[in-house]
Amino acid sequence: MKHILVGSAVACAAVLSAVAGEKTVGTGDAFKGPVGLQLYSLRDSFKKDVPGTLDAVKALGFKYVELAGTYGLSAGEFRTMLDARGLVAIAGHFPMDRYLKDPDGLAKEAKELGLQYTGVAWYGHKSPLDEAQCLKMAADFNAAGKNMAERGLKFYYHNHGYEFHPHGDGTLFDLLMAKTDPNTVFFQMDVLWTLFPGQDPAKLMAKYGPRWHLVHLKDLRKGVQGDMSGKTPVTNDVALGTGQVDYAALLKAAQKAGVKWYFIEDESPTVTEQLPVSLKFLSGISW
Fold first, then answer.
1. pLDDT in tens, 164-199
2. Where are the domains of the chain?
3. Is the confidence at residue 16, as pLDDT, over 80?
4. Which DSSP letter does residue 228 get?
5. Which of 154, 147, 45 is nearest to 102 (CA)?
6. What is the mean pLDDT of residues 118-126?
7. Rounded Cα distance, 166 and 174, in Å
8. Prediction pTM value
9. Cβ neighbourhood burial of 1 (10 Å; 0-12, 13-18, 19+)
10. First to last CA, the chain
11. Fold of domain 2-284
12. Which helix (H) or strand (E) holds 277?
C-alpha cells in the first residue's frame, strides 16, 4: 500500500498547491478559504434535475464540492458530470457501516469520484450519548481511519451536536478526541452543530487546531435555543452572517489552525436565495 499512499499524498499536495494560488468564490482580504459547497444543500433540486443543479452550482462560482450521495447515478457517471462543469469533489459522506464492512468498495467509489476525504456525518447511537457508546464510536473511527489510510484516503467525522454531554472535566467530544488516532482520524466542524449544543466554535477550533481539516459553514437563526439532540428544523439554517455565529472569531481561529477546506452547507428551503448572501458575507468579512 506504500506506493498508493505516496501517490495520494502527491496528488493531494498538487491540489492544495493549486488552491493556494487561486482566489475561490466567497473569499476576500481577510478570509482566504478555499470555499466550496456541500451539495446536500441542493438535495431537493438534485432529485428533480441533476445536470441542471450542477449547472446552478457552477453559475454561483463554486469549483470545489463535498458530496452526500450521487442521486441515483454511479460514481463514474456523477464524476463525468462534475468534470464537464469543472467541479472538483474533495470530500464525501458515507454510512459508517461501509467503512467497517466494505472498505474496498467504499474506497473504489471514492477514488472514482476523485475524493481526498471520506467522512461520516452521523454515528448511530441511543440517545443520550454516553461514555460506553462514545468509546465504541472512537474504536470504530480508529478502524475506519486505518482502513481508509491503507487505501490512500483520509477519514473524518462531522460533529452533529450530540457529542457534548458533560464528561469528567470536559465533554464526551473531548473523550472522542482523546481516544482517536490523530494520524488517521480527522474532523469536520459543523459550526451550527457546535453552537447549538452550547459550545463556542472559535474556542473549540483553537483547542483542537490541527485535528480540524474541514469546516461546514452554517448559521443558526437568532433567538433559537439549542440542545444536544443533534436535531433542529431546517428553517433554522440562515444565511451566513445573519444568525448567531461569531464568524470573524471562528474564521480567524480556523485559518490559524490550518483548516484545509470550507464548505457552505445550507439545509433551508430558501437555500437558493441564501447562498449568494452567504458568499457576499464571506468575501467581505474582516477582523
1. 999 999 999 999 999 999 999 999 999 999 999 999
2. 2-284
3. no
4. S
5. 147
6. 98
7. 9
8. 0.93
9. exposed
10. 44
11. TIM Barrel (3.20.20)
12. helix 271-284
